[in-house]
């Protein structure tokens, strides 16, 4: 496994390759708007960490592959400029100057509206599970928290233990804000705290799909194993119990 921070996947690894973060190396990014931009190293890599490009080229060489002769990130970028057609009119010097370079010409792209087809959820409410719970991603959820969970600022405001409920359902069940409850599905259960949300419809619960350090508060226990690889989990039928 090649990563910058320790995570749960490490326990499955035969070997761990410590990678440096973006602040510990230099290179280029293509961001969400298609802009190619150069970034510079701020600090030297910590410990035994190495840049991703260095690790990949070293592995490739030891496996006998050709074409991985790069000595630094600028050589990689220069080859990319030669190969990618949309980069043909730029140079590495342009990047070093901070020039704004796009990978595509926005005005030449054809766009059309493609409506999504509605697909009803396979999961239905029942007498045993009278609520449907949706799972959303926190705004700071990035790459399964492998990076954002290392931010002290984000960690200070993140709390995956809130269970959102409508005022009508909270009143019916005599639940108060902050009260500890247990949400249970056919696959498992998890603990959380009541958060009354006025905009939430009756019969619907909400929770953030975050990996909690405390397994009791991990919402992943609710989800059937065959759905955990999906980024579109739909609605899960659940029931609420007060924590004893």
From TrEMBL:
Domain Molybdopterin oxidoreductase: 3-61
Keywords: Iron, Iron-sulfur, Metal-binding
GO cellular component: membrane
Domain Molybdopterin dinucleotide-binding: 144-207
GO biological process, one term: respiratory electron transport chain
Species whose genome carries this gene: marine sediment metagenome
Signal peptide: none
GO molecular function, one term: molybdopterin cofactor binding
Record-linked InterPro entries: Asp_de-COase-like_dom_sf, MoPterin_dinucl-bd_dom, Mopterin_OxRdtase, Prok_molybdopt-oxidoreductase
Protein's recorded name: Molybdopterin dinucleotide-binding domain-containing protein
